[in-house]
Amino acid sequence: MKTDQLKTRFRSLLATILAGLLAACSAEQELEEATQAATADSLSDPIVVYSSRKQHLIQPVFEQFTQQTGIAVEYTTDKAGVLIERIKTEGQNTPADLLVTVDAGNLGYAAAEGIFQAINSAVINDTVAPHLRDEQDLWTGLSLRARTIVYSTERVKPEDLSTYQALGESQWQGRLCLRTSKKVYNQSLVAMLIAEQGEVKAEQTVAAWIANLAIDPTSNDTKVMQAIEAGQCDVGIVNTYYFGRLEAKNPDLPLALFWPNQSVADNSGVHVNVSGAGILKYSKNPAQARRLLDWLVSEQAQALFAGLNKEYPVISRGAIDRQVSAWGAFKQSPLPLSKAFQLQPAAVKLMDRVGYQ
Amino acid sequence: MVYFKRFSIWQLFLVLMSLPTTLALVGVLTAWLDIDLAVFGHLFEFVIPNAVLNTLGLVLCVAIVTSLIAVISAWLTTVCDFPGRAFFSWALILPMAIPGYVMAFALVGALEYTGSFQTYLRESISSSLILPDVYSFGGVVLALSLTLYPYTYLLVRNAFQTQGKQSLEVGQSLGLSVRQSFWRVSLPQARPWIVGGSLLVMMETLADFGTVAVFNYDTLTTTIYKSWFSLFSFQSALQIASLLLLFVIVVSLLERQSRHKQRFTNARNAVQARSRILLPSLQAYLACAFCGVIFFIGFLLPIGQLLLWAIPHLSSGLTDQFWRYMLGSFSLSLLAMTIITAFALLLAFAARTQNSYLANWSVKISTLGYALPGTVLAVGLLAPIAAIDHYLARLGFAAPILQGSIVVMLLAYSVRFMAVAFSPIENNLLRVTPSIDAASRSLSVSGLSMLWRVHFPMIRVGVLTAMVLVFVDVMKELPITLMTRPFGFNTLAVRIYELSSEGLWQRAALPALAIVLVGLIPVVILILRADKVQQ
Amino acid sequence: MSTEVEHYLSLNEVSIAYDSKQVLSGISFSLQRGEIGCLLGPSGCGKTSLLRAIGGFEPLSGGRITLNNEVISQMQYTLAPEQRQIGMVFQDYALFPHLTVIENVKFGLHGLSQSESDTRSLYLLEQIGLMDKKAVMPHELSGGEQQRVALARALAPQPKLLLLDEPFSNLDVELRESLGEQVRALLKQTQTTAIMVTHDQHEAFAMADSIGVLNDGALLQWDSAYAIYHQPINAFVADFVGQGVMLNGEMVSTTEVQTTLGCFERKSIAATIDNIQPGDRVKVLIRPDDIIHQDSSELTAKVVARHFRGAEFLYHLELDNHERVLALVPSHHDHAINEKIGIRLEIDHVVVFK
Predict the structure, then answer these.
(1) Residue B227 near residue B236 (C-beta atoms within 8 A)
(2) Of the candidates C185, C191, C149, C188, which has an alpha carbon nearest to the alpha carbon of residue C167?
(3) Which residues, including other chains, have CB under 8 Å from residue B387's CB and lie 6 or more apart?
(4) Contact indicator for B178, B39 with CB cutoff of 8 Å
(5) In this structure, are residues A217 and B216 in contact, taking their beta carbons and an 8 Å threshold?
(6) Are C302 and C327 in contact (CB under 8 A)?
(7) Is C67 helix (H, G, I), strand (E, B) or coil?
(8) CB < 8 Å to B446, chain C
(9) Is the CB of residue C346 less than 8 Å away from at least one CB of chain B?
(10) Torsion over CA of A336, A342, A345 and A351, rounded to 10 degrees?
(11) Helix (H, G, I), strand (E, B) or coil at B241
């Protein structure tokens, strides 16, 4: 009968497609197996990582870890909020051991949602500065980035720059560029402003920034720097590594970084943030996960992990990438990063109120 | 409950079809059990009013612009004749293969003040030449419209082609000019297709995140992400998502209403080459220019920009990994396409043959998923699947079984893209008169056998259209793929996301080109096949 | 096969309702094997619904339908159309546009070998005279050819019953008549039991052994063509089937009726109404063929209109009391308007309505 024909045709089509798909998957697997086989002295389960840090920034690090320890690492990437929701939904069955994400706000949220367990690592306690770790030991920073001022070397004298707040002064009228308030980095920045000077003053500062904007908030930091380069505006606020990437491509970039709030009288400093990680409460493999974290804060791993993204190490003895160290040293804001999470909703609402898109 | 009296296998099928979407919807709606007043109050005061207005404005404008482009170009390329007609007839479908977010960042890359195209204009024509700001409402509408108009174009083209010259001739025989025939005969007859296409466009616009994010344009969808990722209130995110749903339900009800009046137009004569209207020279130039401009901005410009970015990274980009991404994207899309189209075909057929309340509801529900932002949908589905996994784990199976398996991925895709496959199939099926079914059944051919022997050959173009739409859509899909892919499995879309979200457009350009290229394969096949079937 | 001749198809008090709206009620009739029945009625009378119910496409809200001693439909039970072996010819033919003529004809042939189904379909194509078009696609055929292919396709699996839904309505008049005869001949030759639905009495007369007249969801009369015409059961049937006029009359006894045209006797009065009393005012049906033109007749009527029909004239005649009748007169009797001509009545069946 004809229906049989339909069935066989459909089956053969399905088989072809499945075969293709399996080939695609197994190619990936073969690669992993090959690296495992080459180095395997311990045949334990792989460590499973959920990461909002992108593949090209973590894969080389994990590969090196596997090479040195023989422990395989499996990972998947997605947005931080999605991964946290996924971990919550998966509950006890989660295959993941570790969550790697950027921004203290996300780490704080994950901690508050109760998906982490205490890290309990002497190595981390010894090496990572306390304000870059969670007070309850639920997460630790793995790399440090500063969110600082960038300016046009052609149109701005560094003497005219002083603090984040000063960007709201009238001399910057129509000369400031900012990224969208939807990005967590700006939310953390404003959260720190709230922590330092209270909500009322912070709101005045942000409102003054908005009044000085040359163009609508851009969708990312690179656009801010491109706009300054093109003369649409003269100053902006960006994460250091975005500047680093642009500078690496074009060493003659007519832009420079400025470290604000450095005066001794000023009890704040440059706003810093971290990428970091925590061990999941339902990890099947917390010891291995801890081993990976310990390894990640080793000097060698720090150089790689931070260097890949033009970031700063979170350990004091860590070697700083040559390009990054050329930007000079700066005083960090001493506020514990866990504040960022607590104040983030307030920061978002503040920015909504003043019409910061 | 009269319609449950004879519970057939088809009814079971209809229930199963709507089950996953229902689960996801229930997941979204249960968020209302608990309202976070602090977050919600804030959103309602400062964010939602603006977002609603923005969303309405965007959806309306995109629907209007896409319909205009689609109807005009479909009319020109099927009914009229002018130099370049044959080329534009298929070339105008090509922008469909460009994902919205790629279109957005490529257009921005070309058209912004520092962009390649604007810089070129400044340097080669006049330094005072400044294009309108691309970071504007107009820019968002442009980017979305250019990627979405092919959906309507495909459907309307199909309508004009099969409507036949008869309808035009009927108009002319009643003393109408070609122009009047267009307004009074052809256009009203093509309305269900235009409305169907626009509905897809509107749903796609509502659910879009990638494109509007490039322009930093606030919509309901960005508000969902804001309350979820920034205000840490997943509850509120789901609540806003249900507002979005409400909007879609209203629109799709309107669409179904308008369709009731339009059934069973029987097509005999396709438009033949000799019966096309040869445009006089001025009009022919205008027609050519119109299609040319659309094709340039919608395809050549973004592709050119991507090439400009990709070429310096060609040697470093074409790694083994890259080819694996490509194979992954291709085979995944192929698999999803086959499954989703098959289910859509069965659903449309079941709805036709059952013709009951159950069938109506099943169709309505199972085609709703298209309007849900992929992330919300995926999370909504994850909960019931995790529950099943929990249950299996308690039974002693090694957990997780379903999660991270390709089954979940395909399930989520089918919830999301059922509407895409369903629409063209249903449209074609509507044109098969009921007496054809009756004839087949009276000859003792019914059920699947009838579908295969009678309906399938008659609606091949619709099925083909569905396959292409789904293939291209899965290829471009991001949030579901991100969340549900098995470990180590990557697609081109994931790669583009990872690079572009870090601002690395130059490196994202190569996978973006690849996605367009692979997406073009089925589009070209569709065009060739459809034209052959038409003859 | 003799005395115990059973009804091959019978409908017993069949009712159909859509959403509690009654469409048909209390329909009963039956057909013998090989008989051709016809459902006649104005559009909207429910005849197509009835046909679809017999085909299995509509459920019954009451009554039952049996075919060859098997119940195929009753309340809560509808044997699926595909299991009924009832062939159907549709108004729009519903040929499968993607199949050639011969593939269409073969479509319903199941469980036959290739050569058997070839033989069968070629035989039918030969019967309908379309052997040379067997490889042609349906849209290349004329309307009449499509109609014949539809018929061949329906007949190919040798259905227990054939249903024809307004099969000739899309054809021009001449084709209608010649095809009607061909179809009847073919059905008789293949001994196919069939029911046709039409609103055209000529089609019904040409095709059917039995005719049922439907109106407003009720079967008014089920009878032979002759009886339907000459002994209509009520004024609607009389009016709908054939031409004619109603003359006023008065019963002079229970057996006699007096009209302008004379007095008629009860013995030839069709038993259309009971309990008729002397003195009752009634209507008497006069068909055109009841009135014979005779120059010598004393009774005369004035010609008020005339329609030339080739072999004959249809005259509209006005009587002295201004009542009008119709008369069919051989066409060599050419009378002008306003001319008075002699007429005479020759009524076999006097039909009287209250």
Answers:
(1) yes
(2) C149
(3) none
(4) no
(5) yes
(6) no
(7) strand
(8) 80-82
(9) no
(10) -30
(11) helix
> How far does the CA of residue A265 sit from the closest CA of chain B (Å)?
33
- The residues that bridge with C18 in the sheet, in sequence order, are C21
- Cα→Cα distances C268→C184, C223, C271, C327, C344, Å: 33, 18, 9, 21, 17
User: For chain C, where are the alpha helices, taking DSSP H only?
Assistant: 47-55, 101-106, 114-127, 143-155, 173-189, 201-207, 225-230, 235-240
Q: Give the dihedral sign, CA C151/C154/C159/C163.
A: negative
Rounded Cα distance, C142 and C158, in Å: 25
| Residues of chain C contacting B458 with CB distance shorter than 8 Å | 96-98
Most confident of A78-82, B16-20, B438-442, C202-206: B438-442
Question: Residue B278 class from Cβ within 10 Å (0-12 exposed, 13-18 middle, 19+ buried)?
Answer: exposed
Question: In Å, how far is B258's CA from the nearest CA of chain A?
Answer: 35
Question: Residue C304 and residue C293: Cα distance in Å, rounded?
Answer: 15
- Tens of pLDDT, residue by residue over B241-296, are 888 888 777 877 776 676 655 544 444 444 444 467 777 888 889 999 999 999 99
Is the pLDDT assigned to residue B298 strictly greater than 90?
A: yes
User: Given pLDDT bands bounded at 50, 70 and 90, which one contains residue B397?
Assistant: confident
Distance CA A312, CA A324 (A): 8
C-alpha–C-alpha distance, residues A224 and A220, integer Å: 7
Question: How far apart, in whole angstroms, are the C-alpha atoms of residue C9 and residue C73?
Answer: 12
Residue A233 burial (CB count, 10 A): 24
Long-range contacts: A250-255, Cβ < 8 Å, 24+? A253/A229, A254/A152, A254/A153, A254/A154, A254/A229, A255/A150, A255/A151, A255/A152, A255/A153, A255/A225, A255/A228, A255/A229
CB atoms C82 and B458 under 8 Å: no
**Please, is B109 exposed, middle or buried when counting C-beta atoms within 10 Å of its C-beta (0-12, 13-18, 19+)?**
buried
Which residues of B fall within a CB distance of 8 Å from A4? Answer: none
Please check whether residue C199 is in contact with residue C42, taking contact to mean a CB–CB distance below 8 angstroms.
yes
Q: Facing residues of C214 across strands?
A: C219
Put simply, the answer to whether C81 touches B458 (Cβ < 8 Å) is no
Q: Is the pTM of this model over 0.90?
A: no
What is the distance between the alpha carbons of residues C65 and C29, in angstroms, rounded to a whole number? 10
Phi, psi of B116 (to 5 degrees): -60, -45
| Interface residues on B facing C, Cβ-Cβ cutoff 8 A | 5, 266, 268, 433, 435-436, 438-447, 453-454, 457-458
CA nearest neighbour of A304 among A318, A288, A289, A325: A318
Contact A295, A65 (CB under 8 A): yes
- CA-based nearest distance A264→chain B, Å: 33
Q: CA B305, B307, B308, B310 torsion: positive or negative?
A: positive
Residue type for A97, please? Answer: D
Could you report the per-residue pLDDT of B67-91, keeping only the tens digit for each?
Answer: 999 999 998 988 888 888 889 988 9
pLDDT in tens, chain A (357 residues): 444 554 555 455 445 555 555 444 444 444 444 444 444 334 468 999 999 998 888 999 999 999 999 999 999 888 898 899 889 888 888 889 999 999 888 999 999 999 999 999 999 999 998 889 999 999 999 999 999 999 999 999 999 999 999 999 999 999 999 999 988 899 999 998 999 889 999 999 999 999 999 999 988 898 899 999 988 899 999 999 999 999 988 899 999 999 999 988 888 899 999 999 999 999 999 999 999 999 999 999 999 988 888 999 999 888 888 899 899 999 998 888 888 888 988 999 999 999 998
Task: Identify residue B341 by its one-letter amino acid code.
Answer: T
Question: In degrees rounded to 5, what are phi and psi of residue B271?
Answer: -65, 125
